[in-house]
Amino acid sequence: MKILDVPSTGKRGVVVGQGGRYGQVSRILAIPTNPRTTAQLAVRQSLSTQAKIWRTLTQAQIAAWNTAAAEQQTTPEDGQSGKMTGLQLFIQVNTVATLTGQATVSNPPTPGAPVGLPAITLTLANTAGVVSIKLATTGTMPAIALVKACPPQSAGISVCSKWRILGKCPAVTSGAADITALFTAKFGAPAAGKKLFIQVEEVAGYSEEIPSQYEGVVPAST
After folding, report:
1. Cα radius of gyration rounded to whole Å, the chain
2. Which of 218, 176, 222, 178 lies closest to 197, judged by CA?
3. Which of these, 28, 58, 72, 185, has the minimum number of CB atoms within 10 Å of its CB?
4. What is the four-CA torsion angle of 201, 204, 210, 211, rounded to 10 degrees?
5. Domain residue extents for the chain
6. What confidence score (pLDDT) does residue 101 get?
7. In degrees to the nearest 10, what's the CA dihedral of 21, 22, 27, 32?
8. What is the pLDDT of residues 32-51, one digit of tens each?
9. What's the confidence (pLDDT) of residue 12?
């Protein structure tokens, strides 16, 4: 239910507080399901692995990560954020590297200057029941761009917050980056009439830029 209260998130006894679209929300604690999907296990393994590697770094390397992290802010929550720790930045950088097929690093990478995303149009086609999902562009994509998506939604939905990382954006060929395989590997083939929400986010060094969002409804089969 909606309540008037100081903005808060997290568990307090059996009550969980969180921000909602129309204000503060409180609900009874519910233990979420744990399907242990391949993607979930991969991320958990990466987090565990990077935490172990951190303990093997030299003191000079740890100091370098702490210095780099002091220039980075954590993701704001309840209107508050703080400086990252070296461990947080180390895990963030190497987890993204793992998810995008890049080499992990022991030293903080040089902050990259973002080149920016080109003009992109989400194009959806449904030929004989086979859906294709592409990011059409005449520009050049950044060296590393993460693609995120929500599960297929009702066509009447206008806001989606259940974002999942699909992977590194494929290369642009014939004027489009085909993300069909990335999407279907995560959510399966979307049905006609379902609305798709896609985000593309440039990663430059250890800086993740504000993502650009695209949406569209899967057309009927032709």
Report:
1. 20
2. 218
3. 28
4. -10
5. 1-32, 38-99, 121-217
6. 76
7. -10
8. 777 777 777 877 888 888 99
9. 76
Question: Which CATH code fits 121-217?
Answer: 2.60.40.10
For residue 115, list its beta bridge partners. none
- Residue 132's alpha-carbon distances to 100, 117, 178, 215, 219, in angstroms, are 22, 22, 8, 14, 10
Residues contacting 104, CB < 8 A, separation 6+: 50, 53, 94, 97, 98
Q: Which residues contact 11 (CB under 8 A, 6 or more apart)?
A: 29
Pull the structure tokens for residue 102: 């890049």
Ranges of beta strands (E only) in 80-194 are: 121-127, 130-136, 145-149, 164-168, 176-178
How far apart, in whole angstroms, are the C-alpha atoms of residue 180 and residue 190?
A: 10
In angstroms, the CA 216 to CA 213 distance is 11
- Could you report the per-residue pLDDT of 80-123, keeping only the tens digit for each? 667 889 999 999 888 888 877 778 899 998 877 788 899 999 99
pTM of the model: 0.76
The CA distance from 165 to 101, in Å, is: 13
Q: Give the residue, 219 or 48, on which the prediction is more confident.
A: 219
Give residue 181's identity as a one-letter amino acid code. A
